[in-house]
Amino acid sequence: MNEEQKRDYQEKYRIAKLRGEKFFPDTIYKDVLVSFALFLLLIGLATFVGVAPEPKADPSDTSYIPRPEWYFLFLFELLKFFPGSLEWVGTAVLPGLAVALLFLLPFIDRNPRRHWKNRKFAAGLMSVIVIGMVALTIRAVVTTPPQAEATVAGTLAERIVAGQDLYAVHCVECHGAEGEGGRIEGVQGLEGVTLKPINSQDEMHTRSDETLYAIIEIGQQTLGMPPFGRAYGGELSPGEIESIVAFMRYTWDDRAEMPRAAEQASTLPVLKPGETPDYATHIEPIVKRYCVSCHRPGKANNNYLMRTYDEVMNSGDHKPNIIPGDLRSNLVRMVRWEKIEAGGPMPPSRPLKPELIEMIEQWVLAGAPEKAGAPATK
Amino acid sequence: MASKLIGWLDERTGIVGVYKTVFDRKIPRVNWWFTLGSASLFLFSIQVVTGILLTVYYVPSPEHAYDSVQYIMTGVQFGWLIRGVHHWAASLMVLTVFLHMLRVFFYGAYKYPREITWVTGVVLLLATLGMGFTGYLLPWNQKAYWATTVGTSIAGTVPGIGDFILRALRGGADLSAMTLTRFFAAHVWMLPLVILAVISVHLYLVIRNGISAAPKDDE
After folding, report:
1. Which of A148, A185, A378, B207 would be A348's cystine partner, CB 3.0–4.6 Å?
2. Total number of domains in chain B
3. How far apart are CA A312 and CA A321, in angstroms?
4. CA A331, CA A343: separation in Å to the nearest integer?
């Protein structure tokens, strides 16, 4: 801009100001209104949408599909157009150029006109860039596969309950449902090994959470305990191991007080007088705690899986293991601690409590219904 | 009484002059697009307030970061609200800052005499994106960890100095406690101070030069 154009602009601006408004209160009123609307929007978003829960960072989980925050998606997507040895063009040259152009814009664009109609090239270029960014963002959203759902235990009570379920699956076969230990039965390679209890005061008072975490993660290989942490070839994520530690601590340590919510969720259901037991309410919690540890894929169990009602009723080499109404069903006889053709007494290390055995018997007698009020299976 | 007090204050601080320069001035008639700048400033103040409150409970270490955020969400009175607002205001701020830039661009408002205002604005845009990038890692969850792993490795592909940038960002070859503490430092100290300082210059220039008018089609 030459001096004349500058003077010209200043003069026009002076007139625009004269015909204009007062910053206070005319202009600032609009600003306050917009800010207040944004404030309400934020409160609404925080209250009704919230922040999606995410599992704790797990450096060993390489299957996780990384995705940046939405406003970086266009850049992420752009990189896909520069594969292999050209990658640096997308990562360094284009963004660097964009930033440099942005900084230098007022010095590159010497056109004195201001209305977009008189700046067709600049306005057109910017429009194309913005449309490109929006299109890349949309493309990124559409093409990224959905993340595998992960359950996130938020509160302590949720962690303890989650830990209990994980303990039942991964730990019970050796350490027993209550951490009582004893002679291991039916675990390959550890048959007949006797474990000390891990639920004792001794154990709980001398092992910190960090120690318990490390033992579960790395195992105690000289004693035969395999590693369970994913980083060491096991199945558990850091969050899952933490949940198991929380379960152990709050269930067995006499210094820790079990949160009420966790207590309610972890107590096995009791049969009310006159109530007919059903799978969902009464039997599943028993199965989850005492049976699933071995009766899941990949374990020696004669192919009898017990993860769902259907599997409990219809799987296994000796199926059916449950004949509705028949107390000579394999499952009933085995939990009564009998050794039969289909297999040894169950659970192998020590029998279930009498009231739990009785509940299973009543359930089978009632026709092994899946849900309360559902017709008994034939 | 009030005018006496103001007179007393003005004699010692020049407050009336400040008020006249900042508030009591004529500006061209502006439309609603002109509120995007103040909206960005408002969101920045929201981020400062909620961010300061979050640092009361947040612990920047890999062992405790996730749990401390969990605690903020479930254990702290209204912690969920503070974090929720901080989370959403971050996204909203990127949006308003970007739209603000577009408004300035399409109105040609970066031209004489507002070139320096534009340059400070670009710094603020980049710093806002930097805040988003560094803040994203702090909850130390899966999304945060892997997005930052990828984000920093992208910086590592810059020819020549890529490896140096990568190590400087991560504080080592891999993402670790070092990465978390330096992202934390950048997020709560370095970038906010840069933003505060540059906002001051930006606002000074806006007041000094006056806000641009929406151009007419013969301009």
Report:
1. A185
2. 1
3. 8
4. 10
Q: Phi and psi for A195 in degrees, rounded to 5? A: -105, 140
**Taking CB atoms and an 8 Å cutoff, what residues of chain A touch B26?**
17-18, 20-23
- Which ranges constitute the DSSP H helices of A279-335? 284-290, 309-314, 330-335
Instruction: Give the pLDDT confidence of B153-190 residue by residue, as tens digits.
Output: 988 888 889 999 999 999 999 999 999 999 999 999 99
Find the CB nearest A42 among B88, B102, B142: B88
Domain that residue B197 falls in? 31-209
Is the Cβ of A323 closer than 8 Å to some Cβ of chain B?
no
Host domain of residue A355: 279-365
- The domain boundary, picked from A221, A239, A265, lies at A265
Check: complex ipTM more than 0.90 = yes
Neighbours of A133 (CB within 10 A): 17
Q: List pLDDT tens digits, range B21-80.
A: 999 999 999 999 999 999 999 999 999 999 999 999 999 999 899 989 999 998 899 999
What's the angle, vertex CA B203, arms to CA B201 and CA B208, rounded to 5? 95
> Nearest to residue A167, comparing CAs of A251, A274, A93?
A251
Rounded Cα distance, A132 and A78, in Å = 10
Q: Which residue has the tokens 């107390």?
A: A327
Query: Does residue B53 form part of some domain?
Result: yes
Q: Which of A147, A80, A51, A216 is nearest to B142 (CA)?
A: A147
A160 shares its domain with A235: yes
User: Do both A298 and A252 map to the same domain?
Assistant: no
CB contact under 8 A, B112 and A31: no
Q: Tell me which amino acid residue A134 is.
A: V
Same domain, A258 and A285: no
Which residues of chain A have a CB within 8 Å of the CB of B43? Answer: 38
CB atoms closer than 10 angstroms to residue B76: 17
**Residue B16 near residue B2 (C-beta atoms within 8 A):** no
Spatial CB neighbours of B113, under 8 Å, sequence gap ≥ 6? A6, B209
The reply to whether residue A115 touches residue B108, judged by beta carbons under 8 angstroms, is yes
Is the domain of A284 the same as that of A339?
Answer: yes
